[in-house]
Structure formats: C-alpha cells, structure tokens
Amino acid sequence: MLEFARLEMTRTIKPQIFGPGLVELGNTICPESDAPLDLDSKEPTSLKTATFPTLRSALEESIHALIPVSPSPRADAEILLGYVLGKPRHWPYVWDQPFTAPEYQRFRDLMERRISGVPVAYLTGQREFWSLDLSVTSDTLIPRPETECLVEAALDIIPEKARWRIADLGTGAGPIGLALARECPDCLISATDISAPALAMARENAGKHGVTNLVFRQGDWFDALDQVGYHMIVSNPPYVATGDPHLSKGDARFEPRGALMGGLGGLNAIGHIATGAPDHLRPGGWLILEHGFDQGERVRSLLRKLRYSGVSTRRDYGGLERVTLARSDRIEAPDHVSGMTR
C-alpha cells in the first residue's frame, strides 16, 4: 500500500511514501524487512525490488494526505494520477492495476510537491477553461472558473455574426481572448500583456486550438494597442489589495505577483483601465471588468463618476459580485443583458 503520513494543520510534516504492507495512517506499523521509501531520496534502493501498490489504493491514500492542505483533495489526486498515467481521471476506479516503477516514482514526486502547496495546474502545465485545454506556467495566472462569467457577459452582448474588434487587456495565458475568438469567429481579438513569457504561452494556446482571429501585442495596458474604435474592451486585471491575506494562501502563493496585486486598495489597474478605455472605444462601446467579490460597489461608483452608462454587475457561480460592465456613453444597456445588479 502507498502511504502518506497524515499532515497536521498547525505544522508542516514532510510525508513519506512507504512500500507494501502498511495499514495505519496515524500509528503506522512497518515490517522490519520493508523500510520506508524516503521522499528525500532521489533513487530509493527499494524501488527496484518493491511490490508497488495498486492505482486505487495509491489514489485513496493520496486523497487522505491532501485533506489538510487542499480544498479539493480528491480532484487533485485524480488529476495528478491521470496525468502520470496518461489516462482520464476515472481510470483507477475501473482499472485497478499495480504501478510500474516509473509511474510510482513520478506520482510520489508530484504528490510531494502538491502537499508542499504547488498548484495542480503548474504541476501538470494544464488548466481547462471554457472547454479549452490551456497550457499554463508559473509566468501566467491560473485561469479560474469565475472568469468564465466575464466571457458569458461578453457573449450576451456581442451580436450573432458580429464583426467586432475586441481588446483583451492583460491576457495572461489567453483564456478570455481565446474563448471569445472561438465563440465569435468573425470578430478580431487583440490580446495584450506586458509579460513576454505570458504572451508566448497565449500564442502557444492559440496555435494548439487553431484560433486565427486573435492577435497578440506586448505592452502596458493601452500602450500595446495600435488603434482605437474598439467595440469592446475586456480585462481580468490585478485586483488583490496589497497585504491581502489571500496572497499568502493557496495557489496565489505561487502565481506571479504582477498578475494579482492591484495596489493598496486593489483598484489601481481597474482605475487605469476605466479611465483610459473611453479613448479607445467607439461611441457606445463596452467595457467589461472582473474584480474582487467585495469590490463591486466601488467599481460601479468609479464607472459612474467617469460618466459611463448602463453600469451593472454580474454575480459569479458562487453568488458573489464578480464582473462589472458599462458603456462609454449615455446609451442604455439593452434589455437582453440580464442577470445583473444595477
């Protein structure tokens, strides 16, 4: 059986993965003839002669080890095991076979890193967004389900078969721009980012999915745009306030600070984009911004002070205010744009 020592919530304990024959997690009893496989050892001598655990038993022990350190222990373990095997997540439940030595070594290495906090997306180099399998690295923000609400808001506005020009500011790995380009093939999306490595990843994702109505430009927000008169500007900018405790928790500990931190109150980038967008939008053009769950009222107030019209906020899948949209003139928002707080 594969076994990870149980982690305590109050302190970090480095786990060990053991060979066969161990049954207790709390007071583990290990046969004298079966020494533990120390995670610090790069070439455990017992790997060559060990009888490796089955996929299902390894999965269940891994889930148990992740409970204190992950909000989604089962999903994490299933994804990592599927990644090692090159199989779907459900594979161990229907085909419970022993590990091979290389699989065992690779899985235990990934589990050690996950228990230390490294995000699953960075371990696998992949994250799904809008049914798109996106490549990600530590140079890019990890796409989150909440951001799909921004895509939904944009698609509710863009007319069918529209030939709009849309700017995606701060694209990162390209999730928003790619989703809009895929759903609106007649639109032209300009995706920008100040980070060259992030843009390289976005280009790779576009090529992987055969998206051609998407261009990439490097620069700081509007400086990257080569024209004006956009029908829509969308952005998931940095909006976490300096000193916010969430920066020292979960996946955020490993993500690029420049993609997260929005200044003392969290609205520096949002304020910059909101101020400059009217100069780059055509009359009646739309601005759509993602923001923190507790920033909706401040963002709406800011946009109204800047004389935007039709200011409204959508809630995310958890019922929290997450995306605010507005028009660059006094034209009222159409009735079909629903699900919003005014």
UniProtKB/TrEMBL annotation:
MF annotations from Gene Ontology: nucleic acid binding; peptide chain release factor N(5)-glutamine methyltransferase activity
Pfam families in the cross-refs: MTS, PrmC_N
Keyword check for Methyltransferase: yes
Gene Ontology BP terms: methylation
Swiss-Prot/TrEMBL catalytic activity: L-glutaminyl-[peptide chain release factor] + S-adenosyl-L-methionine = N(5)-methyl-L-glutaminyl-[peptide chain release factor] + S-adenosyl-L-homocysteine + H(+)
Methyltransferase small domain location: 156-243
Domain named Release factor glutamine methyltransferase N-terminal: residues: 59-125
Residues reported in the UniProt entry to bind substrate: 236-239
Transferase found in the keyword field: yes
The EC number(s) this enzyme carries: 2.1.1.297
Alphabetical UniProt keywords: Methyltransferase, S-adenosyl-L-methionine, Transferase
EC supergroup of this enzyme: transferase
Binding site for S-adenosyl-L-methionine: 170-174, 193, 221, 236
Family: Belongs to the protein N5-glutamine methyltransferase family. PrmC subfamily.
Protein function: Methylates the class 1 translation termination release factors RF1/PrfA and RF2/PrfB on the glutamine residue of the universally conserved GGQ motif.
Protein name: Release factor glutamine methyltransferase
Gene that this polypeptide is encoded by: prmC
